[in-house]
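Plasmid transfer protein TraB
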Amino acid sequence: MASTDIQQQQENRLNSGGTGMGAWLWHRAKPYTPPWLVTGGAGLAGVGANVMWADSPWAGVGLTLASTALTAATWWAGKSTGPQRRLHSAITVAAGSAWVTASALSGPLSGPLPDLYLMGGATLALSWNIRQVMRSSAPEGSGESSDKGLLEKVGLARTKLKDVKVEANRVTVPYELPAGELTHDDATKAIPRIASALDVPTTAIRHQVDPDSARKGQFVIVPEDMLKTPTVWPGPFAPGQSVAVPLRIGVYDDGSDLVLPLLDAIHILIMGMTGSGKTEGALDVLFELLTRSDVAVWLSDAAKAGQDFQPLLPALDWAALDTPSAGAMVAAVQAVIPARTAWLRDHGYRAWEPAAAVVQTDPVHSCASAGACGCDGMPYLVAWFEEAAKLLREMGDDVFTGIAQEARSAGVTLVVSMQRASGYQLSTDTRASLPAAMCFGVRGDDAGFALPEEVLEAGANPAAWGNKRKGYVYMVSAGVDEDLYANPARTFWTGPSGEYERAAAWLVETFAAVRPQSAGAVTEDAAAKVAGKLFTARRECAGAPAPAEEAPTEEQESARAVAALVDQEDVDLDASAELPPLDGGGQLPAAKPSPEEARELLDELVATVASVGPGTIAVRDLTPYLDQIGRDRSWVSKQLKRIAEEGRLAPTGEEGVYRLIPTLAGV
């Protein structure tokens, strides 16, 4: 039937006289009659109870117990409703049952019972009518009905909201999804719509799931961005203490400290686009490190020659500010790892701890057969590679893989800082070996290179900042509460130019006596063997390119190349040792092939070996021919990479192993 016909019928009924008007009034009043009917029923129940049990004392006891039980049952049944409705229901049942009990024992017309019935009954009935009117006319966006309406709009219909916790600039909303209808993925996808409904940025909403339930979780809403005004660096967090104490480097959006537990983090990836505040965050970490008593810092910055860190260079144990020095630092870090691990093993340490940084006076940690050995301590070592993309282009995307995988137990932390840690720049194995990450503003989907998928699903979105919110960061690390992973933070501001220099100069001078004077004899000896003058003269050069007469020897250069490129199964070989004489008394060629001849010979050997074998080639396959080439394994490894870059070999996915392109094999 058309809506106009229905409207016409209603108008005819209203205009037809008393019957029509009465029907309309009854229709409008009918939803409000139940409380009055219940009141009338209570009066009849009181009269009937008086007739039956007026003279029975046992009936009075029974009715009193029944009244109490009914009130308690009402309170228990209202557990799933709101607190107002629960209390209102309990008071109504208690008042009604008490009047019925009194009426049964004394009579409905005795004493004040008639007045209580008329006034109290009408009051309770009207209170329920008022509640119904308020609920039906409440504007959208308020109360329980508005919650349901909001949830329906954002795609979470039938979701139950639990006790909402409201704090200063923080609202926590626990939820329970309908069984079998929605999942946590649906809740995550609803974040943009919730943000739209509440008119807040998407970064203001975080989604935290209950690890023990597939239906329960909570939304955390921070409506006001308290990070808009940067916090000036407040000074060192734990001056003169061990690096085992976490580093305070900023604040979360709720005002709590952003702290980095370095020994739990192990290795760190710092990523952010130009202008995102990545360097400012690096300064905060370095400011903390350089106030601690048991950590040495090696810093490489070949891209900018240490432009942002000049005031801090005097406090660093080694600053490598050009590509040759940076390459030497990579090789030195690789060389010191087994030396440091051996020292820790010999002194009874399963992993580095603060006691390892001081003179060994504890017999428990002694390398001597009896008593304390008195050996000098071994400070913690942080190897920091700033703007590492340039170094990776020069040395290969897997240059840090061995360091990241092996340095965990050697008291060495690797820090790799770059704008975009894509697979083209940083190998997958290396990224997997960097368990901690600080992700500043990025473009598009680049956050996936640094942050785990579950953190992004929880609401972390550094792409929303880009380079517009300098210093804003998400931090993921062992030792940090997982609920904080998706919480935005902001690193401290070290001040404008001039203020930063003064703060850095104060820090360098004030804590000069606190910092260890070196990385320890074990570390220095191992580094000097592969880096030569680039390491031993590091404080005089301050990272500048070494003069020609101080260039590393051929043996040192070869050792550094081997440390960077040698296969893992051959890590214990001495690449600088002389090759043994040939079997049968033969002698090595008197003249070493020229570089061009060696490359031509290698091409022929690659084609020959790969064509008669499985179609793949690796350095180990060419080891028997090293004497003919007149070069070592590191040179061969570099040349295989060169051939692959020229398109004549193809990577197989296995490190150091290549597949032969058919044209090279003559197929």
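thats it. The chain has 26 helices and 18 strands. Residues 113-137 form the longest helix (25 residues). bye
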